[in-house]
Write a structure and sequence with these properties.
Length: about 300
């Protein structure tokens, strides 16, 4: 039998933080987890959209514990302010769901001078996770789930031009950011194990699923490639309630394992219900992951602090 949201156990007394929770797969994750009695913190850069998403969840589940907090992953300042506010409000974090992202955007920079997709999708989540690491380590059996994409297959980490200033193509830049997500998730698990932590790090991708990214980030006109990709996603996409299942499996399933990667079980991982899938060879490369981690520390100024082992 396929695993569905009906298999999610009761999440009472657990705190979930979901980035990009006002729409798409982030909103569906928040909705489903709220219905399982979790304390859900919906992080979003748009205050009005976040509150509307919260209202919709409360209409469905009036007793749900749902809070919205402002977070712009394209701003290191915003991430630091968010982390400080989260520490003031919460003393535990059971699951950090690194879900937010931008896709195939025109060339632009974050306020810190990072290429927008790499800066938001990877560096933003790298920073957020590092600033909340103490809560994750203090919460028994916590999880970090990082959402990546099949686009990581075409990704390449260009250490000589991480910000794509020499040349820019939106899809290859997106692929770099999604490969970075997967490298980060696997490397974080290596570091959890090296420090004998109870926390685990997992990755997931939705296949081709109805999401806010496809609807709002992909242009409907422009190059032939852009028009092709828009039509291709439209034709191939599965319902968001199915696409969200791999990240929910990673976040809640008892059998989900640290360092594992989950995606759809159908042909080419495009459609279907969650199963463990194999990362690409480059995503499993520890030296590539180490170099990316070091570069991420240097760019963000965030270094992960681990408790001293006895």
């Amino acid at each position: 039998m396929p695993w569905t949201d009906a298999d999610i156990p009761d999440q009472s007394d657990k705190t979930f933080l979901i980035t990009g929770a006002n729409s798409g797969l982030g909103y569906l994750s928040a909705l489903i987890l709220a219905g399982k009695n979790a304390q859900v913190v919906m992080a979003s850069r748009n205050k009005s959209k976040a509150r509307r998403a919260q209202e919709l969840i409360l209409e469905e589940f009036p007793a749900a514990q749902v809070e919205t907090m402002l977070l712009d992953l394209a701003s290191l300042r915003s991430i630091h302010e968010f982390a400080a506010a989260f520490h003031r409000r919460y003393n535990r974090l059971d699951v950090l769901l690194n879900n937010a992202g931008v896709m195939a955007t025109p060339y632009q920079l974050t306020e810190d001078g990072f290429e927008m997709q790499f800066g938001t999708n990877h560096l933003g989540h790298f920073t957020l996770t590092g600033l909340l690491l103490d809560l994750l380590l203090a919460t028994p059996h916590s999880r970090v789930v990082t959402v990546t994409s099949l686009a990581e297959i075409m990704g390449r980490i260009r250490f000589d031009d991480l910000q794509r200033r020499k040349s820019y193509e939106r899809w290859t830049a997106y692929g770099q950011s999604k490969l970075a997500n997967l490298l980060f998730a696997i490397e974080l698990e290596r570091r959890f194990r090296a420090h004998e932590s109870q926390a685990i790090s997992l990755a997931a991708h939705p296949g081709f699923a109805e999401s806010n990214l496809r609807k709002t980030q992909l242009p409907g006109s422009g190059s032939a490639l852009q028009r092709f990709m828009l039509n291709f996603f439209e034709w191939m996409s599965q319902d968001g309630f199915i696409g969200v299942l791999p990240q929910l499996y990673a976040a809640t399933a008892e059998r989900a394992c640290g360092g594992c990667y989950y995606g759809p079980d159908g042909f080419a991982q495009i459609h279907g219900y969650p199963r463990q899938v194999e990362p690409t060879r480059k995503a499993r490369n520890p030296e590539l992951a180490r170099r990316l981690w070091q570069a991420s520390e240097e760019l963000t100024g965030v270094r992960y602090t681990w408790p001293k082992q006895a």
